[in-house]
Design goal:
alpha/beta; TIM Barrel; 3-stranded antiparallel β-sheet; 19 strands
Length: 341
């Protein structure tokens, strides 16, 4: 076990050795011998421990487009890692087998024990240009992710979080200096959705989007468009207008839902719904809106927001053509926001 960061001991009340975890926006109050909502941080006599430091259940080489990040080293590979656990309880989670692991022995967590240097070496040996902390909410294995980020930066790799955005402000400020890119889910634009579907709240997510952008991390956003839950014109417009109010160059990925886990009562998202969402985003002033999970839809490509010239042609996670030169449109020299390497 590894002592956790971002917690404090409780000084009030009758319970001895209680702590408050301040890593994410839940701020779990944890009694001695208990774990937080993420199930991977445990209080032992007033000391909070990460139970999953280095215990990886996933190590894969992925195209960076899978995160999805479309304006971040396009066509490159990213070494993707994950432990078990999550601070959300999304009813439609596609990685529920590792995000919702249930009980496990603190002295024998699931996974294979790795070191930060091992992760960095694996990324370099596989020709990756970045490490992605992903599959579950990476904030819950912050200590290991942060240590990996530091070593990765020292050896020329970039770092990416794929996140639900539910981290506390101090966590964001500690992470940002070693983080290069982040994709943050904006799952809906109502507290009701977040409470009922995810077990969380909306405002902390929006705060993280703002702060990550303010701190200079490259930000992209994703909304999984779920029929009947978050797909009204009004709600999609609110999401798009929020993103545009921060920076109209922040890409917005509107992706297709497929029934899974505890949400099998709804149909998959139609291509028409994604096209409608994309149109709403562009009308709200966003420069880059992408349709996801439907390869070949036509909404995967990047065009110059100034002259409309085609810049990046994609099919799924594959780059078929990239015409961006030194971060600019080759036709009109318009700067294209992103991390182009």
């Amino acid at each position: 076990m590894h002592e956790a960061q971002f917690y404090r001991q409780v000084k009030d009340g009758e319970e001895k050795n209680e702590v408050i975890c301040e890593l994410c926006a839940h701020h779990c109050r944890i009694k001695d011998g208990h774990r937080g909502l993420c199930r991977v941080r445990e209080n032992r006599k007033g000391v909070l421990y990460s139970l999953v430091y280095g215990w990886l259940v996933a190590e894969h080489v992925d195209p960076i487009e899978k995160k999805p990040l479309f304006h971040f080293l396009p066509g490159s590979q990213s070494f993707s890692i994950s432990t078990v656990g999550c601070n959300f309880r999304c009813r439609h989670c596609q990685n529920f087998s590792i995000s919702q692991p249930g009980a496990f022995d603190a002295d024998a967590p699931p996974g294979i024990l790795r070191t930060p240097q091992y992760v960095v070496d694996s990324a370099l040996n596989n020709g990756c240009r970045s490490i992605s902390y992903t599959y579950v909410e990476p904030t819950i294995f912050f200590e290991f992710a942060y240590d990996c980020c530091v070593v990765a930066r020292e050896q020329g790799l970039k770092n990416v979080f794929v996140s639900n955005g539910y981290m506390a402000e101090q966590t964001t400020r500690k992470l940002a200096p070693v983080l290069d890119g982040i994709n943050i889910d904006i799952k809906a634009f109502s507290d009701d959705f977040y409470r009922k579907i995810c077990g969380a709240r909306l405002t902390p997510v929006l705060d993280t989007v703002r702060l990550m952008h303010e701190l200079g991390v490259w930000v992209e956003t994703t909304t999984l468009v779920i029929p009947g839950l978050n797909d009204s014109d009004a709600e999609l417009r609110e999401i798009a207008e929020f993103i545009a109010s921060i920076d109209p160059s922040i890409p917005w990925h509107v992706t297709a839902f497929y029934p899974t886990y505890k949400m099998t009562d709804r149909p998959p998202t139609s291509v028409q719904s994604l096209q409608r969402a994309r149109d709403i985003g562009l009308a709200a002033g966003l420069k880059f809106v992408y349709e996801g999970n439907v390869p070949g839809s036509g909404g995967e490509n990047t065009s110059c927001p100034s002259c409309q010239a085609g810049l990046i042609n994609r099919f799924g996670y594959t780059i078929k053509d990239n015409r961006i030169v030194d971060g600019r449109c080759p036709q009109c020299a318009e700067p294209i926001a992103g991390v182009w390497g």
